[in-house]
Structure formats: structure tokens, C-alpha cells
Amino acid sequence: MKPGVYETTRKNGDVYYRGNITYKGKHISIGSYNSEAMCNAAYNEARDILKDDSITLLSYQNKIKSLPFEKVVILINYRDNNIYIKNPIYLFNNYFVYYLNQSTILKFDKDDLFYYSSHKIQYRGGHLFVSDYGMQYNILNRYGIKPYAVKGKDYAFANGDEFDLRYSNIILVNKYHGVSKENKSGRIKYVAKIHLNGDFIIGRYSSEAKAAVAYNKAVDLCKARGMNKNFATNFVTEYSPREYADVYTDIKISSHLYKFFRNKNFREA
Q1: Where are the domains of the chain?
Q2: What is the pLDDT of residue 172?
């Protein structure tokens, strides 16, 4: 076998070739290939990356043809930063980038490095996901952005780049379901709405958290009156369980909502 190439067999008996390279005492897999020649070519490119720092993520296309792009990122980062990371991450001084592919690059704060070093990011249907304990999670959840949130309405990106996921770039506009911010003549109020036969205003409140509690109380009323709609509810982080219970008891919701249910002819939206 040529250097860095190992022959092995699939379960169906087909022969294929695995490549490995050792750098700074670490054995690194460079992938699987259908031929010894292809595997050896990838090995030689990996060796070139590790010994030639003129091969960068901006210039590698001129010299790297066989090695998968993900491996290119991993090897260049290890060479430049002396940290081996199994995902396609490159470290900078105050942040890191995660390459979904050659043209789609995510930016993160270094605080998130441990998490994304061990969690593979997937991009599907315009959403970014990771798999965790057998479940898929939208990574925007890490910023307090709910699954039902709408970009531009409930959250925004300060510099307009939706792939810049550093905390300073993410603006939470509406943190809670059914709650929106209202500014009238410089006076800020938080409006709670629920969708019945159209949007129904529950009330206006002095804080986002109180509006979220009011929305939850309206949901509970709807369910108690026999409306079987699948309402989302809010987990309100600002209050302890005792504080939440007190606010829930005292909070006022529109009397029109009670009148809505007194009408026996109401129909569900």
C-alpha cells in the first residue's frame, strides 16, 4: 500500500481504502475512497497542507483536488491554531467560523466553541439544526428565539447577515409568543394577542413578561371553554414559580374575551 493508505472491506465484501495521516502525534482520518490512487492523492494533499502554510482557506483550490473540503478546513485550523477540532471550524482571535460548505460560513462567539466542536450543524429548509440526544434542535433556540418566531418581526440581525450568529449581532424584538412591542408617542407598551377568529387583543401591559403571562392566561381560558386549538404557550423566565403564580392571578385580560365565549355560536379558527 502507498503511504497513508489502508485497504479495508465493506459489509457486502467490496474493497475500499481509508486514508490517515499523523501530525503532532495525532492520527487523523482523511476519509474513505474507492481506489488506492484516490486515497493516496488525498493523503499527499493533506501532507502538503500541514507542511505548507501558504495553502489557506482562500487559496487551497489551486492545489487541493482530492481531499474533501471539510477535511481541508480541519487540517488548516489544526496547523494554524494547534487545536484539533473534528468539525469544519477555523479559529480567529475573538470568534470562530463554521463552514457548512465553501460558500456558506457561520460566525460564532468563542463561548460557543465547546458546543459546536462536538455538534454537527445541518442546514435544511432555511433553518440551522443540530442533533442532540437523538432530537433535532434549531440553533436559534440558544439565543431565546422560539421555533415560531419570524425573522424581521420577532428577531433581527444587527448587520443584516443571518449567518453571523455572534450574540452581539442578534436582536430579540419579540421574545414571547403572542407578544409584540408597541411604541406610541414614546410610550412603550407590550401588546398580547391571541388568534381566535382573527387576532384578538388580550391587553396592553407595562412589561414583556407580564404580556406573556396574560397570553398564557388567555390560552388557559380558551382551553377551559372547550377550544381544542393547539396553542403555543410561553415559558416566562423573568419570574420564579411563586412570582409567576402571583402575576397570573392579578393580571387582567380583556373582558371581550369572556364575552366571546358567552356567545354560544362561536366557532374555532
Answers
A1: 1-80, 85-173, 179-262
A2: 85
Whether 205 and 238 have beta carbons less than 8 Å apart is answered as: no
Q: Show Cβ contacts of residue 200 under 8 Å, excluding neighbours closer than 6 positions.
A: 193, 194, 254, 256, 257, 260
- Of 208, 203, 217, nearest to 246 by C-alpha is 217
Strand partners, 183: 188
For Cα atoms 157, 113, 75, give the angle at the middle one, nearest 5 degrees.
Answer: 110
The edge-to-edge listing of strands for the beta sheet with 135-138 is: 121-124, 127-132, 135-138
Spans in the chain with pLDDT lower than 50: 268-269
DSSP 86-108: SSSEEE-SSEEEEESSSS-EEEE
**pTM across the whole model:** 0.75
Q: Any residues with CB less than 8 A from the CB of 78 and at least 6 apart, and which?
A: 23, 24, 26, 28, 50, 84, 85
Cell numbers representing residue 126 in the block = 432555511
| Edge-first strand listing for the sheet containing 89-91 | 89-91, 95-99, 105-109
- Cell representation of residue 92: 480567529
**Contact (CB, 8 A) for 123 and 136:** no
